[in-house]
Amino acid sequence: MKVVCLGAHILDVLGRPVPDIPPGQGRRTLEEIRITAAGTAGGTAVDLAKLGAEVVSIGPVGDDATGRLLLDLLDSHGVDVRHMARRPGLATPATMLPIRPNGERPALHAPGSMGTLTAADVDLGLVADADVLHVGGPDVLGDFTRDALPDILRFAAEHGTATSMDLLSVGRRELADVLAPAWEHTGFLLPNDDQIRAVTGRDDLVEAAGVARACGVGTVVVTTGAQGCLIVTGDGVERLPAFDVPVVDTTGCGDAFTAGFLVGFGARRSLPDAALLGTAAAALVAQGLGSDAGIVDLPSTLAFGDRRSPGVA
Ligand SMILES: Nc1ncnc2c1ncn2[C@@H]1O[C@H](COP(=O)(O)OP(=O)(O)OP(=O)(O)O)[C@@H](O)[C@H]1O
Ligand SMILES: [Mg+2]
């Protein structure tokens, strides 16, 4: 399965446990600090590669040490980084994540080069050749999302490439107008509950998913953290609970869910079965620090999903 991951690639620096930031110049000793390749495109790219997909990443990075490290991490997981867009003089998008003892993850983010992607950075030959085009973080890609993304998604659809999208931030209501032309050509939208509520202005998740579907999205899969997910199609709504696992850090659970879901889709599983693979991948990531924790490969992720019935959370 070939996937192009287009959009937000971020270097995450995570430490745990951080119950609070020490006052003044105070100091705290942590159990663990990790650096990972993350973001709704980059984190999903790493997880897809671990699950056996052939992955090409396209996203903006600076020419700084952070960017070199990010590319090296992606490459070490087997992601093709030759098409990443280098931006001389700009910083690579990066996030500091002080992980709370309960696994919650406040994020301190510096976008750097994030908003600089243009249509010229996207090799349409790669898009046509891929099985899936996954767009991560259209909400943070600046003018690209309005000016270039709808045409790229339409091109993908016209060339038989399935399309998916996940958001990075909890956007605002105005974002819906920017995303609507892209949603027209989006097969799968996989936001979390806060994001779809904020963008659509609807509190009820099925109604919120309905707003995106009315714009043209085929299937909306809303992830709801420890509760699981909701699959909304024209045929109705299915709910799938998460796995009950000892949580260390939920950073990247959504990215892992997307990766598992897309691999399931690529293997022609039913939507609930694809979501089950997504749920298993996400549960593995939740048990370690960082968005690349936990997942080893497809057989062990499938085995994890088969061994444990969801519904116990
Ligand atoms: N505490 C948890 N226990 C078990 N599974 C979890 C937990 N939190 C998340 N998950 C799994 O991960 C999936 C995605 O989680 P969530 O809705 O938090 O995504 P997200 O907010 O997009 O995360 P991120 O943006 O960091 O990748 C859920 O559907 C669920 O299967
Ligand atoms: Mg997410």
UniProtKB/TrEMBL annotation:
Keyword Transport: no
Keyword Kinase part of the UniProt annotation: yes
Entry keyword set: Kinase, Transferase
Top-level division of the source organism's lineage: Bacteria
GO MF annotation list: kinase activity
SUPFAM superfamilies reported in the protein's UniProt record: Ribokinase-like
InterPro entries documented for this protein: PfkB_dom, Ribokinase-like
Residue ranges of every copy of the Carbohydrate kinase PfkB domain listed in the record: 2-292
Secretion signal span: none
Protein name according to UniProt: Sugar/nucleoside kinase (Ribokinase family)
